[in-house]
Amino acid sequence: MGLDLTTYAMIVEELSRGWISISGIVNTHFIGSYLLMKFGTDEQRQRYLPRMATGEIRAAFSLSEPELGSDVQAIKTSARKVDDATYEINGQKMWVTNGLLSSLVFVLVKTDPDAEPRHRGMTCFIAEKEPGVAQGAAAYAGFNVPPKIRKLGYKGVESTELVFDGYRCPAENVLGGEEAGLNRGFGQMMDALEVGRVNVAARGVGIAQRALELALRYAEERRTFGKPISEHQAIQFKLADMATQLEAARLMTLRAARMKDAGERAELEAGMAKLFASETGHFCVEESLRIHGGYGYSKEYEVERLYRDAPLLLIGEGTSEIQRMVIGRKLLQRHRR
Ligand SMILES: Cc1cc2nc3c(=O)[nH]c(=O)nc-3n(C[C@H](O)[C@H](O)[C@H](O)COP(=O)(O)OP(=O)(O)OC[C@H]3O[C@@H](n4cnc5c(N)ncnc54)[C@H](O)[C@@H]3O)c2cc1C
Question: Ligand 1 pocket by C-beta < 6 Å: which residues?
């Protein structure tokens, strides 16, 4: 639809108010679309974007590996050129959202093992595969999807490993073309993650909003000591803290999105929004669960699911610790300028 990021963040908030699994499917697909729009060649955009826009094909993006997530520069999955028009990819990826049902995986691999600094030796390939199939047809030989990873929550979207074992990828599938894209993958992925962090922040806002709504409703219904629990000051304080943090998280998320829409770098603001909104999501869900008392622990109440879904936001697209590192580094850079 060509919408701006601010509008998109509002849509993600609303989806996440319903179920963050849905926003996970969409966000991951969105990051692939963003990579193509920003860095793809005309030919790559024409080949994939129309079908991605209608939902005919789904995208995934893949940086993490079994031995690393935060330290992206330590990736081991590699690609080497086997003839003029083909690369061979070998290695294992981990935690790929949309890993099974995607047709395209934007995968970051090592193409120059001797590069210093390491990030100058990485390339993003657009790896095609058969959706929903663990071992695809001959054209996708060597691209295998092991069984889904069993998880605490976030169960409406699959997370999988990906195993590349001699997978042949055409050189024309280097994101941005071989000339412009070879060994540029790290920067491309980091740019996309900035947008991804606004998305995760919006998810935090959505889940916090839902947790607050459930808490408000339950607090009016449940009675203790002769009155609704909403009339106890301790409960009102919880609701007040939830609503205040939620409002701040929403404003931070929209500000980061607006900056990105205005073409400004928003690494600092996106990092702050992601950190604050994901922690707010987690905080509000836990407070809502406490307000629900024993029923919060029962599968009959929605807040039980929120409690299992919310922690993902503290981890995906950079943990809270990594956000603090990004924020600290950016603050110092701006201060020294
Ligand atoms: C459900 C789910 C879906 C995911 N989807 C995707 C996906 O689609 N694509 C993808 O590529 N990845 C995906 N991920 C992976 C996710 O991005 C990583 O899990 C995350 O980046 C953390 O990496 P890790 O799990 O390897 O933890 P580690 O990097 O091993 O970190 C372990 C702990 O150490 C802390 N830590 C690490 N380094 C430092 C440091 N320098 N200073 C202080 N503390 C530090 C971390 O904050 C964390 O608390 C997904 C993960 C989950 C759970």
Answer: 28, 61-64, 68-70, 95-97, 151, 154, 159, 312, 315-319, 321-322
